[in-house]
């Protein structure tokens, strides 16, 4: 079932079915995004599968797997040491990449837009470290940067970080790459011009100057954003999710991660022998930091609490992933020079242990959140089926405007994109006939007790045989005397 902003795609399917869908429709601004390439996926995949949302979730998972593979390849190219250490680094990496802390992005098909930029970026980094010629590298990365730009609001960052890796290693290489770098700059300028042509501020969103007017508030938002993927505050502060204690833990975690990244960058600057191996990881961390800055500028006006939003973790968790690879590279050099021989292992073990321990708290809670959110979607779908018969408050959990939702839902139903279809009749006999089977197979109403004036308590059980799970909704009816 579509959820919230996903309902805006109904007009795309309507136009596509009528043969009136245009490139300008796909390129149009949606919130802050111009998600042209995700729109192609949504329309193509949606039409082939009658908008079975599970396939979009598979695309998100496939993109995450691609990111995991790319980071594995980068690790093989840049990290020395025993296989056991590489396995540990890769384990920590995947603990973050597939973390349930970003459960909203795992369960909503339109969140493909959160996975596409990082998939493009990490693929470009692998290409940059490959043995391909300079022209092939530049051309491939320019194509991927274009896809990234027109996939998500932060996708344009690919243009800003990739040139660092393809920068000439010596002055002798500069003339050979000068025209390629000029083409890169032209590509960036053209992409930016297309992106911002006709750009309009999203209605209902705060002013971009909010972060300048309230810098302390913006700093808190920024640090919480960076620390959100690692901090276990959700488990500690169950009754006070956005309380001061939770904010302090999240901001402290973000400050620690940012400080470690800055220290790592300074160490590499002092020892340029590490630059080539570390460049890719520095760019990966920079991607998360710059994305956090963009989100902070655009969202601070919503309040610091908004920084706890789960969907942003898919952008920011690559800062700790970068650190997981940067620290071994830096410490290897110190060990080779006879420094930190004993302390190196202890430091790495402490940092690795911290990530594992925090996720021992993060994983169980967020897996329960996955289950709760999934049930919420199922209950919303059950409520949606009755939209033509009765109007309930639960409809606003599917989309805030019930009037628009009714039009969109009936349009989807006309395309046979809703399974099961909308209920057309208010007669309970017709509803029961639609799924005729032995009633005892689904459950029973055991008792109805009057507990007050016009108040009754019903008890019983109901199950969905296909899933072996509790029913998403129960329709109670009565005969008028």
Question: How would you characterize the overall build of this protein?
Answer:
The protein is mostly helical and 481 residues long. The chain contains 20 helices and three strands. It has helices at residues 10-18, 23-27, 36-49, 53-78, 83-97, 103-107, 112-129, 134-149, 157-165, 174-196, 210-213, 215-227, 233-236, 244-270, 275-299, 313-316, 318-336, 341-384, 402-414, 428-434, and strands at 443-452, 455-464, 469-470. Strands 1-2-3 form a three-stranded antiparallel beta sheet, with no helix packed on it. Helix 1 (10-18) runs parallel beside helix 19, helix 7 (112-129) runs antiparallel to helix 8 (134-149) and helix 17 runs antiparallel to helix 18. The longest helix is centred in the C-terminal third of the chain and has 44 residues, at 341-384. The protein is globular.
Quick description:
The protein is mostly helical and 481 residues long.
Number of domains: 2
Number of DSSP-assigned strands: 3
Order of helices and strands, N to C?
HHHHHHHHHHHHHHHHHHHHEEE
The low-confidence runs, each spanning 5 or more residues with pLDDT under 50, are none
> Could you tell me the mean pLDDT?
82
Given helix and strand content, the structural type is: mainly alpha
Spatial order of the strands in the main sheet? 1-2-3
**What distance lies between the first and last C-alpha atoms, to the nearest angstrom?**
38 Å
Secondary-structure map:
Blueprint: H1 10-18, H2 23-27, H3 36-49, H4 53-78, H5 83-97, H6 103-107, H7 112-129, H8 134-149, H9 157-165, H10 174-196, H11 210-213, H12 215-227, H13 233-236, H14 244-270, H15 275-299, H16 313-316, H17 318-336, H18 341-384, H19 402-414, H20 428-434, E1 443-452, E2 455-464, E3 469-470
Antiparallel strand pairs: 1-2, 2-3
